[in-house]
Amino acid sequence: xxxxxxxxxxxxxxxxxxxxxxxxxxxxxxxxxxxxxxxxxxxxxxxxxxxxxxxxxxxxxxxxxxxxxxxxxxxxxxxxxxxxxxxxxxxxxxxxxxxxxxxxxxxxxxxxxxxxxxxxxxxxxxxxxxxxxxxxxxxxxxxxxxxxxxxxxxxxxxxxxxxxxxxxxxxxxxxxxxxxxxxxxxxxxxxxxxxxxxxxxxxxxxxxxxxxxxxxxxxxxxxxxxxxxxxxxxxxxxxxxxxxxxxxxxxxxx
Length: 254
Fold this sequence. Notes:
Elements: H1 2-35, E1 42-47, H2 52-55, H3 58-66, E2 70-75, H4 85-99, E3 106-108, H5 124-137, E4 142-146, H6 155-169, E5 178-182, H7 187-190, H8 197-203, E6 209-212, H9 215-226, H10 234-242, E7 248-253
Parallel strand pairs: 1-2, 1-4, 2-3, 4-5
Antiparallel strand pairs: 5-7, 6-7
């Protein structure tokens, strides 16, 4: 009887937690399916610098691959702020290989129009024009990029959002093409890794998409980030350990 009482007591304590985990996992599956119905299609990730794809978007890329999407990447600079452009282009291709994007599907723009410089505001119309041409040339039906906060507030990130929003508001996005933007979060949420999952799930709205990596996929994301050797300063190594963006991506539809 005493053992039975202990079991009943333990069940009473654990049941709410078990139910909550089940509820969260159920909502996670629902959110992914709600925002991205069906399998297949051609998805384009639009980034500003080499390493954005791994540092911020690895869960999205691996999640889309899981859903059978063909992956493309458009990078608007070579990351030449410290005159390391040639090195960083090679690192980007290595990272993309780890994340499942073939080199033929990677376009890196190395132009004076789009310098890697947080002090320079990229021209919205020029960015939008290049982006639209790339979307049409590759028959893209899903575009993913930064939101208005740019995750880190970097002007180059924000410029990409301004361009895709301009295309969307002007009705120039090709018919049948969905646009998703990566949600920026507070500094506290940014560095608590998987502990941010409950809040991410609770804040997910209709049409939003949430990608959460498994342990195996998280290791793959870290391998992709490790390809960017020129950028792995001590603070970025801490980022790899603690950032939610290497485990969780919350995406919002325009």
